[in-house]
Each structure stands twice: as C-alpha cells, then as structure tokens.
Amino acid sequence: MRTPLTSLRTNVELLMASMAPGAPRLPKQEMVDLRADVLAQIEELSTLVGDLVDLSRGDAGEVVHEPVDMADVVDRSLERVRRRRNDILFDVEVIGWQVYGDTAGLSRMALNLMDNAAKWSPPGGHVGVRLSQLDASHAELVVSDRGPGIPVQERRLVFERFYRSASARALPGSGLGLAIVKQVVLNHGGLLRIEDTDPGGQPPGTSIYVLLPGRRMPIPQLPGATAGARSTDIENSRGSANVISVESQSTRAT
C-alpha cells in the first residue's frame, strides 16, 4: 500500500501548495491532470483494500455456502466488465451450472478473470468466456484473451500474492487479482490451469481454465428462445502446449 499512498500524498501536497495564499498557480491543464491522478490513486487504494479484505475472508473461512447459479455469476460479472471496457467484444457461451459455495467469492473470481483478460486486450479485441460441462459433476469455466500471453516460467507465480510481472508493472493493479482467483477456486474444490489461447501465435494470448464441481441446472428461456446454452459464438481454443495446473492448497508457485 506504500506506493499508492506515497503518490497520493505527493499529489495532494502539490494541490494544497498551489492553493496557499501568495503561491503561484499551477497551469489549468496541470491542475486537471493532478486531480485525475488523485482520483485514480484513490481508486487504486480502494481496489487494494477490497482485495485484501477478500483474501482475509477466505483465509479465515468467513464465508457462507449456498447454492450458486454460475450462469448468473458470469452474466453479472460481464455487465461490470463491459461497463469498464465497452471497446472489447465478448464471445460468451454458458450453461446452467450450480455450485454449492460462496456467492461473493465466486463472483469475485469470475470478475477478476474477466477483468484480467480485458486489461490485456487491445481496443476492438475479443475476450472469450465459456462455461461448459465436462462430466456429471464437473464444469469448466474458460476465460480467454488474445493479449501478449504469460511466459511459461511465470505461470505459477501469477497466482501468488502481490506478484506482478515486469510487463504488468506499467498497468494498474494490486497483484492480488489472480491470487484471489486461486484462493476461491481451491476453497471450492476446483482446479486451475493456464494455456496459450493460440499456441505458437503472435501474440499467443492467455486462457485460464477453472474446473468447478457442481451439478447441471436448466437456464430459464426467454419467449421464443431455443433450449441450450447462452451463446454469442466463441472459439474453442484448447492448445495442448504450455499447460500449468494449480491443484491444492499446498501447491505453491516457485
């Protein structure tokens, strides 16, 4: 928390100094930029505090388990991400799937995965979101982007708290988003793995796969709709190369 606090304090001190009696006024555009920086730093701190609260809840086991409709979780998370990145196309395909778990945690997990994919996608890029059934008691949530990808040597590290790759340091973030994903998935008896979206491609992109236990449930149909998955068409990219799994609470990145 030290870095955003230090930056925030510096900017606030500059603004206060410029408003002191007799002090020279900052140029108008510089004042606008400083105020924008202050708001961005406050948002960064709010996100960091929220991430830390989510992690502490999971560590302490302070969650309420109940039936959770994952299709609804995905829809709500997509709404939030679309508001922030309305310049990205989301290709979505979900089935009705119920998990007995923590609604808040599962929602944060889905949101973090989609936010992460959107963050690494250029304007006009595509993010794929697919929830499909693997067997009678397991479904798989896959969130894919066409960004620069994650080097093989960093794929365990990205799920560790506060880890940020060299390329990610230029972008806003706390280094806790994927750590929360890992905690939530493992607390629900799930598995994680990372693959290239387009193995050998330039860029290769990143696909994060989440295996979730649960059971199939019907999705309410709109009048005139046909039965099946909600879909806006998604490419099913399942490259076999460069796979990494996170399997249990004892698994640690190295």
TrEMBL record:
Residue ranges, annotated region (Disordered): 221-254
Superkingdom of origin: Bacteria
Membrane topology: Multi-pass membrane protein
Keywords carried by this UniProt record: ATP-binding, Cell membrane, Hydrolase, Kinase, Magnesium, Manganese, Membrane, Nucleotide-binding, Phosphoprotein, Protein phosphatase, Stress response, Transferase, Transmembrane, Transmembrane helix, Two-component regulatory system, Virulence
Pfam families assigned to the protein according to its UniProt record, in alphabetical order: HATPase_c, HisKA
GO CC terms: plasma membrane
Principal place of residence: membrane
Ranges where the Histidine kinase domain occurs: 1-216
InterPro entries registered for this protein in UniProt: 2C_sensor_his_kinase (IPR050980), HATPase_C_sf (IPR036890), HATPase_dom (IPR003594), His_kinase_dom (IPR005467), HisK_dim/P_dom (IPR003661), HisK_dim/P_sf (IPR036097), Sig_transdc_His_kin-like_C (IPR004358)
This enzyme's EC code(s): 2.7.13.3
Catalytic reactions of this protein: ATP + protein L-histidine = ADP + protein N-phospho-L-histidine
EC top class named in words: transferase
Cofactor(s) it depends on: Mn(2+); Mg(2+)
GO MF annotation, one: phosphoprotein phosphatase activity
Gene3D superfamilies given in the database record: 1.10.287.130, Histidine kinase-like ATPase, C-terminal domain (3.30.565.10)
Feature: compositional bias, Polar residues: 237-254
UniProt key word Repeat: no
Subcellular location: Cell membrane
Protein name (Swiss-Prot/TrEMBL): Signal transduction histidine-protein kinase/phosphatase MprB
Biological source species: Mycobacterium tuberculosis
Annotated gene: mprB
